[in-house]
Amino acid sequence: MSLPWLEEHMNALHERLQAGRLGHAPLIQGPEGVGKRELARWLAERILCLQPSGREPCGQCRSCELMASGTHPDFFAVDIPEDRQSIPVDAIRGLIEKMQLTPSVGAARVGMFVDADAMNRNAANALLKTLEEPAPGAWLVLCSDQPANLPATIRSRCQKVALRPPPFESAGQWLAGECGDVGEHNRRAALVLAGGAPLAARWMLKHGEFERGLAILETLVEPAADRRSGKLLDEWQQDAAGTWQWLARWLVLMMNRVRGVGSADLPMAARLPTDLPPGHVARLWEQALEGRRAAGSGSVRQDLSLGKWLLEWETLMESRSRR
Ligand SMILES: [Zn+2]
To answer: Each residue of 211-235: b (16+ CB within 10 Å) or e?
Structure first.
């Protein structure tokens, strides 16, 4: 997969690696969908490759073959276990143990964190020691879209690599190549909704998320008797975190529209109400963000909190039609 906006980062990382100036724990940060994971994976392959050809891993050595088949004995990916909400301390202890072994293939071992900020406090403390006293040839590649949630002690021991969405027009060109079957209008809309992050926009368009978002907007703006019906809430809570995110996204666009920000590219601009009290919309937006966090932690019944949110939204919409 070619991600042109990562080129400059790949060049810089390659140069630092060649000069022996790349710290043993790069922290790749940036919003969702800008390619953190892809860059981290490339870096891991490049570090482990036995005969890199210039900037790129060779793709042919034993190490590259093992990476391609997903069986490299010196590469360890750390992610949130399926039955958990965060990365537990045992996962870090396991990683540290493995990172201390002698590499089986080349001279390096790489541990990669897909979501470093998902470490719980104990896990982060356990990792800190390894960051302070790295074993020779041991690399940790961390990714995070919420680096502020990482302890400062961890952040200060990592080398920051900050990714940003590419300029809107070049992101649009890339997206056109990836989703040529989608009309330009919808591609631009998805890109705005994804905050300019190309991979997030592509995911939206390819996985029916864009349509889902439109349906959620429809529910918000069209008065419908069954708005708070059990069926709707049932549907919404199947992916509660995703629903909350859509609610937050639409509310941001409504606030932007009222303020006249970026109106040229606002998707569904004509459908967004402009006469809602901004303070109230902002409060509902904060509740949606809070809902998303709570959905991630699995602590609250989502149908109840979504229903409560929707009731408040409805009251707001009704007060407007009465004015
Ligand atoms: Zn190779």
So the answer is: ebbbebbebbeeeeeebbeeebbee
Start and end residues for every CATH 3.40.50.300 domain found in the chain: 4-162
Cα 29 to averaged position of ligand 1 atoms, centre (Å)? 26
Question: What CATH code would you report for 4-162?
Answer: 3.40.50.300
* Distance from Cα 14 to the centre of ligand 1, integer Å: 14
Cα of 266 from ligand 1 centre, angstroms:
45
Nearest to 237 by CA among 217, 208, 216: 216
CATH class given for the domain over 208-322:
mainly alpha
- The rounded Å distance from CA 106 to ligand 1 centre is 10
CA 142 to ligand 1 center in whole angstroms: 22
pLDDT of 299 higher than 70: no
Q: Is 139 helix (H, G, I), strand (E, B) or coil?
A: strand
- For residue 62, the CA-to-ligand 1 centroid distance in Å is 7
Report which listed range, 56-70, 219-233, 281-295, is most confident.
56-70
For residue range 241-280, list pLDDT tens digits in order: 999 999 999 998 888 887 777 656 677 777 888 888 889 9
Distance 312 CA to ligand 1 centre (A): 57
Joined tokens for residue 33:
């969908």
Task: Convert the pLDDT of each residue in 157-209 to its tens digit.
Answer: 999 999 999 999 999 999 999 999 999 989 999 998 898 999 999 999 999 99
Q: Ligand 1 centroid vs 50 CA: distance in angstroms? A: 5
Are 193 and 267 spatial neighbours (Cβ–Cβ below 8 Å)?
Answer: yes
**What distance in angstroms lies between residue 63's CA and the mean position of ligand 1's atoms?**
6
Q: What is the pLDDT of residue 169?
A: 93
